[in-house]
Design goal:
- By secondary structure, this protein is α/β, with parallel strands linked by helices.
- The protein has three domains: about 5-70, Arc Repressor Mutant, subunit A (Orthogonal Bundle); about 75-175 and about 270-305, Rossmann fold (3-Layer(aba) Sandwich), CATH 3.40.50.2300; about 180-265.
- About 45% of the residues lie in helices and about 15% in strands.
- It is built from eleven helices and 13 strands.
- The strands form four sheets. The protein has a five-stranded parallel beta sheet, sandwiched between helices. Strands 9-8-10-11 form a four-stranded parallel beta sheet, covered by helices on one side.
- The protein is elongated and about 85 Å long.
């Protein structure tokens, strides 16, 4: 991400954090040191934000946030949406459909949202970057990207209300597609054909979604690009991208698309998932607000004694 964008995002984040108060920002020299740029670069960004009404310059005092600019936004609150690992170079159709469904549901609940783009996929840097965002809550739209749950756990422990669409996570709040229907359907198919040897020739993320519903002894698993099937198989379940490849490797096998079974083309219901994600996040945010109120009241009582 360009340095000017980083500075702009940081300053707008400070405006949201300040809320209805007008808060003095770090000096131009401090910001230049923080982002390792020349002071003139910082001055260009602050001048643009002043011109757009985000900041106010007070001669002799410094630059301050303008609470009037985000009066409505601050009251609504800002929800972050993290797609994949936060470093996606582009959106495919699935990510776009799920992201737009989530965005519509956030706006329908009178919140604003921000698509979070990260500079690094290093876990420590990811946690740091997300924690610095002025968010009321975070929806992690993991999609097809396999991401360590430890990152989400650290964010949850920091006090950030967080929900995710990631079925192989089990230590944070998860709302996801009903893969159980499809997984159980394939399990029934394999049980009814015990004489036929089945194989899942699928990328890792597909298997993570389906295998919780299929006993491991029923099917072998090979991930494309990592290895080639060493045995001969009678039934092979794969995705569209690897259909021809596996057909050439195993010409005598019956090859099926992983998400088409018994005449039903199974696709995620993005609207239902988005609605479930937002409902769960609202409950977590309400709990977080109540917790903060109790802590604040306790501190006030302690100080009054």
């Amino acid at each position: 991400m360009r340095k000017t964008f980083q500075i702009r995002h940081f300053l707008i984040g400070e405006i949201y954090r300040a809320g209805t108060s007008s808060v003095k920002l770090p000096s131009v020299r401090e910001l230049a040191r923080r982002f390792s740029v020349a002071p003139c670069t910082v001055s260009a960004v602050t001048a643009e934000l002043i011109r757009d009404g985000w900041l106010r310059s007070r001669p002799g005092l410094g630059i301050f946030t303008n609470p009037e600019k985000i009066a409505d936004d601050a009251e609504a609150g800002l929800i972050g949406v993290l797609n994949g690992d936060g470093c996606l170079y582009y959106f495919n159709r699935d990510v776009f459909d799920s992201f737009t469904a989530i965005g519509r549901h956030i706006l329908s609940r009178k919140f604003n949202f921000r698509n979070i783009l990260l500079d690094s996929s290093d876990p420590d840097e990811m946690v740091k970057e997300i924690s610095q965002q002025p968010l009321r809550g975070l929806i992690w739209n993991a999609g097809t990207v396999v991401v360590s749950e430890e990152i989400a756990i650290r964010l949850k422990r920091s006090g950030l209300p967080l929900v995710a669409d990631c079925p192989h996570w089990d230590r944070v709040d998860v709302v996801c597609s009903d893969y159980s229907v499809l997984g159980n359907s394939w399990a029934d198919c394999f049980r009814k054909n015990p004489s036929k040897r089945p194989l899942f020739y699928l990328p890792e993320w597909h298997c993570l979604q389906l295998m919780p519903w299929i006993p491991k002894e029923l099917v072998d698993i090979v991930h494309p690009g990592q290895e080639s099937p060493a045995k001969k198989y009678d039934i092979i379940v794969t995705d569209a991208a690897h259909h021809r490849q596996i057909q050439a490797l195993q010409p005598s096998a019956e090859v099926f698309d992983w998400n088409v079974h018994r005449g039903i083309h199974w696709v995620p219901d993005y609207r239902s998932i988005a609605d479930g994600l937002m409902d769960r996040l609202l409950r977590l945010m309400k709990y977080d607000d109540e917790r903060k109120f109790i802590e604040k009241t306790f501190i006030q009582l302690k100080e009054s004694r």
